[in-house]
């Protein structure tokens, strides 16, 4: 058997460079590249190997390990999990900086390959620089922090272990039911050790997306339930996008007359103007979708976990007769909420269900009611997003201006704080891929790095990144990376001088404003006047401050014609949010407090919990 003598790191890189993915555009490299921040734990081994293969497997430099992992995750999401990236770090803070981003991928079911360096397998130089020592377990390293948020974890302590570990890692990353983070912790001495690998190990492998069809008995039961429904509705989740089933969903809903509501991950699966589109569901949902959900007697949940925001902490489906069918490729998700499982990917499942339903349609009055409520909601959206005359703009007015400026092919990127709630309700998405909001983990700092990852996935599309001042201050360094890589972003910083979203939540549970807004943190003197435009300019971006929506709209026109990343800063109202739509969200309130406001909030909270228990 012919062999190649390679170091473990060289073998790893050569193997990754040989992985291919089948996409609509034909065969392409599965890994678009490797984000790397080098240190003593990976530069001599993996760094040397990446340099040698840089023509086939590009290496990208970032400024923060968490941010580069965010960019890699956003790249995979924008590619509907068909393509991905790897990230490599050194053994200490570089590795632990990956944990938050890895949790984003884990919660959102997105693939990313993590290659942190590890301590010496020989242990001869222990404790090596940056080594985390567990006094009771000598096998523990900083990399073990990644175990709870990795779907597959291995520690490579011998060069030949790659031949078992890499195929298992690939299967985890590309399988629709399992694709989540994979961590291969690479002992830094073993990275440089040589082994005679079989040439066949490096043969090109083409990965095809596995399409799972429904079990006949599950399909029959689901079709029978749906055909008896008088008030059915569909909830579209991220799985619709990942199965490339948006057209199938649109055709199924239109043919059957069923209204469609969307989760955060599912938004855009149906164009905002589609006749069956009723808007966002749940805590950040539209009045149309939530009213229909309260009355529905059957819910077909497609590719969604039905998290607490979508279900209003399990209160949104209020009809005692309501049953849920969970069409999902993941068995764990298909069993949630006491649902009837329909284990299949979204596309094949809808196709099979359509065949099984014959000529059944939802009752015409229900379909008409859904359309009337959606039309009323769209009037509410017009009102909320229109420019106003108040001294400070609202988040809704800013996103309205961005929505008007964005073209049909442009992408909205956001993550944490109050903005995702307003966007879920109000952003009008023309179709799949135009709405990229990370809200499964609601990770502050994802926004700018995520925008970079989406731009890398498709440089032809304009990125509108909306970020609050709190998230901007947490992580902004990839502005410099976007300029360095010539990946232009349009970034809007909404400056409400603190954590406005959590301040509103704090006051909603009866508490006083405390430790969130600058004005309540600074006891004496003026709060800091942070010049976000000047800061962005120092990172080589174009930038400007604007005052009001009219100036913002003019700035958007300049940004769209600019050649590099542009940051626009605008002061916004920290207290304002859209009143229309929405639903209850369970946030526990103190049972005992000296504050009358907290006592009132606790009473209302207890009543709501009791109401849910009775239901």
Tell me briefly what this model is:
The chain is of the alpha/beta class and 615 residues long.
Largest sheet: 6 strands, parallel
CATH topology of the largest domain: Rossmann fold
Q: Strand pairing plus helix content: what structural class?
A: alpha/beta
Query: What is the top-level CATH class of the largest domain?
Result: Alpha Beta
* Shape type: globular
What proportion of the residues form beta strands (DSSP E)?
15-25%
| Whole-number count of domains | 3
Average pLDDT over all residues:
96
**Which parts are unreliable, with pLDDT below 50 for 5 consecutive residues or more?**
none
Named at the architecture level, the CATH assignment of the largest domain is 3-Layer(aba) Sandwich
* Individual helix count: 24
Strand order in space, largest sheet? 5-4-6-7-9-8
Radius of gyration, Cα only, in angstroms? 25 Å
> Total number of β-strand segments?
23
- Name of the CATH homologous superfamily of the largest domain: Thiamin diphosphate (ThDP)-binding fold, Pyr/PP domains
Structural account:
With 615 residues, this protein is an alpha/beta fold. The protein folds into three domains: 3-207, Rossmann fold, CATH 3.40.50.970; 216-377, Rossmann fold (3-Layer(aba) Sandwich); 386-571, Rossmann fold, CATH 3.40.50. The protein contains 24 helices and 23 strands. The strands form five sheets. The chain has a six-stranded parallel beta sheet, with helices on both faces. The protein has a six-stranded parallel beta sheet with strand order 14-13-12-15-16-17, with helices on both faces. A hairpin with a 2-residue loop joins strand 2 (19-23) and strand 3 (26-29). Helix 3 packs across helix 17, helix 7 packs across helix 13 (346-356) and helix 15 packs across helix 16 (419-426). The longest helix has 22 residues, at 364-385. It is globular.
